[in-house]
């Protein structure tokens, strides 16, 4: 009796042990052994809201089919993206394909967490040079940009026509137009000067267009741009509330008819389409002096391949990322999300199909990456910019002193 | 129970050797039991309080940035992070704002809370219903509350300014969240709104504990209304008051979500507090070492009030 029990126990154990071993085998060394045959890739992105979530899903599915893998996709809200990336990198559970915002790429690449795409023969030649500035770290390219966005000037066509105002091309015209369009509780212009990077991002187009440089903020070019902001607010053409408005608030003001013009980006177009009674159009950011080129910051997400240690999967992930950069993928995603393909060869066809994006397409062509010059130092400059803007707009510092006060921390 | 058993056992004379043996055995068993009872709580405290505090202190002495998460390297930098904190131009304004925010919030919450609690002490139709309605701000997620307040306080189209203008209290709209001179007050007002339910609930409980006979006896001696409050309610409420105030300070000093939702520390850094600084250093700039240093300063201040609370509590128990 006793021995029989023992025998059954041993048999049972013998049956179980191989199971555990196989479990270990497939979990731990899967990449190393099944190197040639990658079946699934994990993807982490921050398009967690509709309609963007399904639009991106369609783009992912297309490339997954082309590369021959199934995708396990996880989405996190944009503001939690970096925290998720940090957590998952410390627990060594980064996804095979990771979406980052373009100013984050250099910072993350510098830590050694990303694989350079050059090693996998990803062709980056068709991509516009400015779109690669943000993803190039020490000569290596670490990501492929999704179709890009930027900032431009939206105007309410009916209000401008009623006031007999042409869409402004220069700062003087902007001030005059904004003053003329300020009637009752309607302001001429709305923009975001919030105490966040959003506020800094909105200031960049004026600063860069006027020749300002983020590596040296205490210059006349930058101060002139700040003076423009101060003039607009102090003359009452823009609300004092701009210091507390997000870009979504700015869009709401515009849609409610409380602002005749606004600085905003093409990602607001789906929301604007919900209110067909507001007839709008866009022009590029006005310039200070004739001859200047409207220069706005380049926005948009980037696909990267994290160093997961599984060489075969990284290779497959790079293939997947390369597919997202293809003409088809860029064009389809660009049309669906009102973002501009970052391949210069597509712009003509793109504008033909989406005429409303004409101004933005040109704006993207001349746009600059926030981290192009500063890399990981950009956040510091961004903080200085939005603090200086807030100091000047609230009258805490003169335009002359604002940047030196802000950079003092 | 154990004491009775022990005293019952003691007089029994047992041979010397057996006695010490069994006593030792019993002693160690008893000790083991004691330890086993303490272990779960001890583990819990070590895991969920001890570890984070120790980690926070070590982190504040390290250069802990995004790189650390990938490489695991966090070089020791001694007190450099604290030097960064104390030499920052934002430190003293943030400290002052934290103090003003805490004092303003507590004063408002407590005064209104006590007034409402005294009011609801009387029974009247619907009093229970109304009292439970007071809890509403407590039930609302803070981020929802602050988003709503942000639109209420909007300078141009916010309902508060419109209302005040309509009844003629103000001529020009108040720049609630857009002027550095007013923003802190606005944030304090919202935080008072958030804190009233807590104060009402605890103070109401305290008022219920005061025996009615005291008021009846006092009324016979002619002490009613304000006199009754001063000589009966207030002295009898003292222990509850100290609890409410100290817990209020500890809760208020670390308030983050309301400020982030309303102003994000702006305009022009007018609503920066130590908690906001700590959050922004850690989760916006990813300078976790500096953020940890800020939060340690905050913890020290909270600890001070926690000690005051514990001492006050012990005194109350002794009495």
Percent of residues of chain A in helical segments? Answer: 40-55%
For the sheet with most strands of chain B, the description reads:
none
**CATH 4th-level superfamily of the largest domain in chain A:** Periplasmic binding protein-like II
C-alpha Rg of chain A (nearest Å): 25 Å
**N-C termini distance of chain B:** 26 Å
CATH topology of the largest domain in chain A: D-Maltodextrin-Binding Protein, domain 2
- How are the strands of the biggest sheet of chain A laid out side by side? 2-1-3-11-6
CATH architecture of chain B: Orthogonal Bundle
Tally of contiguous helical segments of chain A: 19
DSSP strand tally of chain A: 11
Order of helices and strands of chain B: HHHHHHHHHHHHHHH
What labels describe this entry?
heterodimer; A: 409 residues; alpha/beta; D-Maltodextrin-Binding Protein, domain 2; 5-stranded mixed β-sheet; 4-stranded mixed β-sheet; 11 strands; B: 319 residues; mainly alpha; MetI-like fold; 15 helices; disordered N terminus
What's the helix and strand layout?
The complex is a heterodimer of chains A (409) and B (319).
Chain A: H1 2-28, H2 30-33, E1 40-45, H3 52-67, E2 70-75, H4 81-90, E3 97-101, H5 102-110, H6 129-133, E4 136-137, E5 140-141, E6 143-145, E7 152-156, H7 157-163, H8 171-180, E8 187-190, H9 197-209, H10 220-234, H11 247-255, E9 259-264, H12 269-273, E10 280-283, E11 301-304, H13 311-324, H14 327-337, H15 347-353, H16 358-365, H17 371-374, H18 378-393, H19 399-407
Parallel strand pairs in A: 1-2, 1-3, 8-9
Antiparallel strand pairs in A: 3-11, 4-5, 6-11, 7-9, 7-10
Helix pairs in contact in A: 3-13, 3-14, 9-10, 9-18, 18-19
Chain B: H1 2-9, H2 16-60, H3 66-71, H4 80-87, H5 91-121, H6 127-133, H7 136-139, H8 142-152, H9 159-166, H10 183-208, H11 212-220, H12 225-253, H13 257-262, H14 274-284, H15 288-318
Helix pairs in contact in B: 2-15, 4-15, 5-10, 5-12, 5-14, 10-12, 12-15, 14-15
